[in-house]
Please model this.
Amino acid sequence: MEVINISINQTLSRTLMTSFTTLLVVLALFLFGGEVIHAFSFALLAGIAVGTYSSIYVASTVALFMGVNKQDLMPVKKEGGEVDDRP
Model:
């Protein structure tokens, strides 16, 4: 739980800045894009909102519920020697 809390705090500003800048562009498409692109830009707006919410709140809760710990996220060392240099 402590690792997830630290990770969310470290990435929160990047997540919000990325979502906000993307939201500005899609909002401009929504307002000035015309009738043809109106429905598509609305779907993108909804996707940005849901994706940001999911990244911040849902993903960490699901990881805690599944019992993911720090050891599960470490790379697995393969058994055996090194790979040949032959093509």
